[in-house]
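Quick one, T. Sequence first:
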Amino acid sequence: MSVASCAFVVTACGGGADTKDGASASKPAAKALTAAELNKRVVTQGDVKDHDIKKPGKKDAFAPGSVSVAKAACDPVGQVLSALPPTESVASVQRLVVHESAAAKKGMPSMKELADLTEDEAEQATIDSLDITKTMTSLWSYDGDDAAQALATLRDAGKKCAGGFTMTTDGEKQQVTKVTQEKLSAGDDAVAWTVGTKAAGTTADTKVVVLRVGNTLAGFSSFNIAAVTRGEAFDQPTAVIEKQVTKLR
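Structure tokens:
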């Protein structure tokens, strides 16, 4: 357990001062933030330049219990891929963060513009207009050292399930083809992956990051429409991650 987490979970770190009668003194375990407290700390509109931030609609988010994983050991990965907590949390909030490139802000090329382009140029211009990164940002609060334990469980699941697994979301089956670890230093502790999926013949990569600040986890499930279409790599939503960590401190 890190030094930072000891500040939040005194009882788990031990080393409390002895009382006069020789008993070990300890402070109560940290209480989970309430949903109202999480709402004050989650990123909001105006926090991240050139990003649109709003509460997700029903079609944007998966409801708890809507995701099932064939291999129990891989369940935490399937949950966070779907922007759900790796283990049951006390409270949670979500925000949908959208970033559009300059080309995407222009929108789809007009018929006149397309007529002046070659077939390949027209295709690329159309895909460029889809250069939109959507990041479901979630905060999950836990009591005591449960957040640290949840992150440790998630990290272990990522290692065990690196080769993939089958999961079902809202009744639709999809294959996770890979769980590839990425480097990331954020918060008190963090895990980061590129998760490959295949459903109905379509493949896609999703950037998944889960970090801990004290006894709260922040999850980020991010994909870029143009990158998925082209089969290209894309970056982690670092600006969103950095701002969220700052608001949790």
